[in-house]
Design brief:
The protein has 359 residues and is of the alpha/beta class. The chain has 2 domains: 17-255, Aspartate Aminotransferase, domain 2; 258-358, Aspartate Aminotransferase, domain 1, CATH 3.90.1150.10. The protein contains 9 helices and 14 strands. α4 links the parallel β3 and β4. α2 packs across α6 (240-255), α3 (79-87) packs across α4 (101-110) and α7 (259-278) runs parallel beside α9. The longest helix has 20 residues, at 259-278.
Length: 359
C-alpha cells in the first residue's frame, strides 16, 4: 500500500515509523500474549508505559518539577470547562484574548462558570492578526489570562510571550512540540493529542502545582485537576491506547533530535509553502505575515469556482484533507511534525501544475 499525504487538521498524520511499530506490537505487546489495548491500566506493564511517556514529555518540553503533567479524556474542548472551574469562581473574572474560532469556543464555555473579560481581540480585521501583548487590557483582579497561541482554523500564531504577573493559560493543541517554548512563562498549558501527539481522545495538561486545590464546589470529580493529579490521571480507565501511542511519538521526537530540531524542520516546511503562495497571483494567504502559523496554513484560490476541482484533483494526486474549515472556506494545509518535507514539496508541485493549467 502506498501511503498518501494527510493534510488534515486532526486526526492528523502520524509518523510512519511509529505506525509500523504499533502494527508490529498490536497483537502481542512485549511477548505477554496480549495487545496493549487489552491490559489493565493499573497493571505494572501499563503503569510503566504511562510513567515513561510522562518522563519523555517532560524531557522534550523541559518541564520542571514545579508542574504536574496530566493525560486526560476529552481533548482540549473538555478543558475549556475545567479551566474556569479549577482556576476561577462564579463571582470572579477571567481574561481571554479573542483570536478566532477556538478562542471563541473557550470564551463561550468559560462564561458558564465565571465572568469573562475580553482583554484583546482581532475580530476587527477578521482575525488576520494576533493583538500585540502591549495592547492587552487585562482586568485588575483576574484569575488568569487565556491565549490560543495557534488558531488551527485561521492559521494564526502567537510567539514571544513576555513575562506576566497574571497566570497565563494557553491552548497549545495544534502547536505543542512543534517549536521550543518556555514552559515557565505559563501557569497552565493544555491541548488535544490528535495533531502532534497521537490519536484523538487524549488530552494533556501541564499545570503549576500552586494552582491545584482551588476548584469550585460544583466541579465534577472528573473535571477536577487536583483529583486527576492525586489519581495519576487514572481516576477511571484512561484512553490507554492513545496514551501508549503518544509515548511512542515522544520517543520518535527524541530520536529526531527533539523539539528544537522539529522547529527548524517546521519553519523550513512553512517557509516553502508560504513563499510559493506569496509569489502567486492564483493563491492567497490573508494572515499578517509576522503572525502566520507554521502548523496550519490556510489559502484561497482567486477563483472560488475552482475549489471543488482543486480538492478533487488533489485527492487523486494523493494529497488528502485540504478543504478549509467551513467558517473560512478555501483550503488549509496542516503540516504538523509528522508531515515530511516531501509532502509539502508534493503539494507545491500540484499547486503549481493546477495554476498553470488554469491561468
Amino acid at each position: 500500500m502506498t501511503r498518501k499525504f494527510n493534510f488534515g487538521a486532526g486526526p492528523a498524520t502520524m509518523p510512519k515509523a511509529v505506525l509500523e511499530e504499533v502494527r508490529q506490537e498490536l497483537l502481542d505487546w512485549k511477548g505477554i500474549g496480549l495487545s496493549v489495548m487489552e491490559i489493565s491500566h493499573r497493571s505494572p506493564e501499563f503503569v510503566e508505559i504511562a510513567n515513561q511517556a510522562e518522563s519523555d514529555f517532560r524531557d522534550l518540553l523541559d518541564i520542571s518539577d514545579s508542574y504536574v503533567v496530566l493525560f486526560l479524556h476529552g481533548g482540549a474542548t473538555l478543558q475549556n470547562a475545567m479551566i474556569p472551574l479549577n482556576l476561577s469562581s462564579e463571582g470572579g473574572t477571567a481574561d481571554y484574548i479573542d483570536t478566532g474560532h477556538w478562542a471563541k469556543r473557550s470564551i463561550n464555555e468559560a462564561r458558564k462558570y465565571t465572568k469573562v473579560n475580553i482583554a484583546a481581540s482581532s475580530e476587527d480585521r477578521d482575525f488576520t492578526y494576533f493583538p500585540k501583548q502591549s495592547s492587552w487590557d487585562v482586568s485588575k483582579n483576574t484569575a488568569y489570562l487565556h491565549v490560543t497561541p495557534n488558531e488551527t482554523i485561521g492559521g494564526l500564531r502567537f510567539k514571544d510571550l513576555k513575562e506576566s504577573e497574571v497566570p497565563i493559560v494557553a491552548d497549545y493543541s495544534s502547536a505543542i512540540l512543534s517549536e521550543v517554548i518556555e514552559v515557565n512563562k505559563f501557569s497552565l498549558i493544555y491541548g488535544g493529542a490528535q495533531k502532534n501527539i497521537g490519536p484523538a481522545g487524549l488530552g494533556f495538561a501541564i499545570i503549576k502545582k500552586e494552582l491545584l486545590g482551588k476548584a469550585q464546589s460544583i466541579t465534577p470529580t472528573m473535571l477536577n485537576y487536583s483529583e486527576m493529579h492525586e489519581h495519576k490521571s487514572m481516576y477511571n480507565t484512561p484512553p490507554t491506547f492513545a496514551w501508549y501511542v503518544a509515548g511512542k511519538i515522544f520517543k520518535w521526537l527524541k530520536s529526531m533530535g527533539g523539539v528544537s530540531e522539529m522547529e527548524k524542520l517546521n519553519n523550513k516546511k512553512a517557509k516553502k509553502l508560504y513563499s510559493f503562495i506569496d509569489q502567486s497571483d492564483f493563491y492567497e494567504n490573508k494572515i499578517n505575515k509576522e503572525d502566520r502559523s507554521i502548523m496550519n496554513i490556510p489559502f484561497q484560490l482567486n477563483n472560488e469556482d475552482l475549489n471543488s476541482r482543486f480538492l478533487e484533483e488533489s485527492r487523486d494526486a494523493g494529497l488528502l484533507a485540504l478543504k478549509g474549515h467551513r467558517s473560512v472556506g478555501g483550503m488549509r494545509a496542516s503540516i504538523y511534525n509528522a508531515m515530511p518535507e516531501e509532502g509539502v514539496d508534493a503539494l507545491i508541485n500540484f499547486m503549481r501544475t493546477f495554476e498553470k493549467e488554469r491561468s
